[in-house]
Amino acid sequence: MITGALGYIVVLLTLTVLIVYTEKRTRHRLFEYLPSVVILYFAVMLLSSLGVWQKSSEITALYKTLKSNLLPAMIFLMLLSADLRQIGRLGKKMLLTFGLASVSISVGFIGMFALFHHAFGSPDAWKPFAALAGSWMGGTGNIVAIQGALELPDADMGYALLIDSIDYAIWVMILLSLVPFSTRFNRWSGADTRIIEEVGTTLAKQESQRGVFTLKSASILAAFAIVVSVGSQYLAAFLPVTDFLTHTTWVVILATLTGIAGAMTPVGRIGGASQLGTMLLYLIVALIASRADFTQLAEAPLYIAAGFVIIAIHVAVMVLFAKLFRLDLFSLGVASLANIGGVASAPILASAYSKALIPIGVLMAMMGYIVGTFGGLMVGKVLEMIAA
Question: b/e per residue, 211-236, with b = 16+ CB within 10 A?
C-alpha cells in the first residue's frame, strides 16, 4: 500500500500516460464511444477501491494543493480556444440550434429531477446532476469545474461520470445511425442546408492560421495559466460568499471569465492551449477518482436511467424546435453532441456528414465550454430549489 505523496502521484501520472498513449497509438474504436478521460477515471477508481494507496495526511495535502491550483489553470487554458468572434461566424441558424440544444438539455435535467428527485437517497443528489449538466452543456472540463465550485464529494462524482459515459456512448451511436436519414428528416422539417457547406469551408481556412504547439508556446501558456490560477484564488477571497456562491465557485467563475476574455487577445492565438489544458484535465480527473471507490455507487442503475430520461426530454423538445424553426438534422445532431459530448465527439458526427463540416463541430463544442459552467451552475440552483 502506498502511503507517500511521491508514490501516489507517480502512479496517477503513469496510468494517465498509459491510457493516453494507448488511445493515440491504437486509435481503437472504443475511444470513439468511451472517452479516454472516462476510462482513466474508472481505472484510477478501481485502484482506489483495491486500496493501492492510503488516504494519509501527506497524500491528502498533495491532493488538495494540486487540485485547487490546477483547476483554474485548466479552465483558463481550455477556454483560450473559444474565441467568441469566430463562434459568431457560425451563422444565426446554427447558433440558434446550439442555444436550443442547451435549453432543451436544461429542461431535461429540471423535468427529470422534478419527477424523480424523491427516488434518490441523498438530499444532495442534485449536485451530481448539476455537475453532469455542466458536462452535457459543455464538456469534461466543465464537469470538473462545477464539481469544484459546488464542492461535490469525489465519491458522488462517480455517478455523474457514470451517466456521462454510458448514456453518452449510446446517444453517440444513435446519432451516427441517423445520418442516412438526414435527407428525409430535412424534407419533413423544411430545412435549407445550402449555407452549411459554405460556413464549414470558411472556418477550415481560419482554423489553419492558428499557431502550433511548441516548447516556447507551452512555456508562455503555462506562465499565463499560473498567473490566472493565483490571481483567481486571490481575488475570490474578497468576493461575498453565500451557500451557493462559495470561494471555490468564485475561483471557477473568475478563471472562466479570464479565459473567455483571453481568447479574444493575441494569447488566444498561441498554439497548444487546448493540448496543455487537456493534460491538466486528465490529471485533475485522476486526482478526483483517487478519492472514490466502487462501493459508493450503490444507486448506479437509478442514475443511469435518469440520464436516459434527460436525453428523451431533450430529443422531444429538439424535434419540436426542428419543425418550428425548420432545422436540419446535421445542425440538430452536432449541436446536441457539442453539448453532451463536447469536442471529442461533435467533430466525429460532423465528419460523418462531410469532412468540410468538421470545423463547425469543433466551434460548437468550443461554444459549449463557454456556456457549460454557467449553465450547469444555473441548472444546479434550480435543482437545489426542487430538492429543498
Answer: eebeeebbeebeebbeebbebbbeeb
In the DSSP assignment, the letter for residue 211 is: P
The grid coordinates listed for 99 are: 442555444
Question: Do 183 and 343 contact (CB within 8 A), yes or no?
Answer: no
Which alpha helices (DSSP H) does the chain contain, by range?
5-26, 30-33, 36-49, 57-79, 84-87, 92-116, 126-136, 140-149, 154-177, 182-189, 194-207, 215-236, 247-262, 273-289, 300-325, 329-340, 346-353, 358-387
Tell me the per-residue pLDDT of 237-287, one tens digit each, with 9 for 90 and over: 999 887 667 788 888 889 888 988 888 888 888 888 878 888 888 898 888
DSSP character string of 316-383: HHHHHHHHHHT--HHHHHHHHHHHHTGGGTHHHHHHHH-GGGHHHHHHHHHHHHHHHHHHHHHHHHHH
pLDDT (tens digit per residue) in 287-323: 888 877 766 566 778 888 999 999 999 999 999 999 9
Phi and psi torsions of 265, nearest 5°? -115, 175
Nearest-CA neighbor of 273 among 82, 99, 9, 77? Answer: 77
Q: What is the DSSP letter of 2?
A: B
pLDDT at position 111: 94
Phi, then psi, of 10 in degrees rounded to 5: -65, -40
CB neighbour class for 187 (10 Å; exposed up to 12, middle 13-18, buried from 19): exposed
Q: What are phi and psi of 192, to 5 degrees?
A: -110, 115
Compute the distance between CA of residue 112 and CA of residue 323 in angstroms, rounded to an integer. 24
Is residue 118 a contact partner of residue 92, using CB atoms and an 8 Å limit? no
Q: Which of the 8 DSSP states describes residue 123?
A: T
All structural domains of the chain with their residue ranges? 84-271+295-387
CA distance 71 to 51: 26
Tell me which amino acid residue 125 is: A
The single-letter code of the amino acid at 131 is: A
* The residue type at 117: H
Using DSSP, state whether 53 is helix, strand or coil.
Answer: strand
Which class for 240: exposed (0-12), middle (13-18), buried (19 or more C-beta within 10 A)?
exposed
pTM of the model: 0.75
Task: Count other C-beta atoms under 10 Å from residue 151's C-beta.
Answer: 12
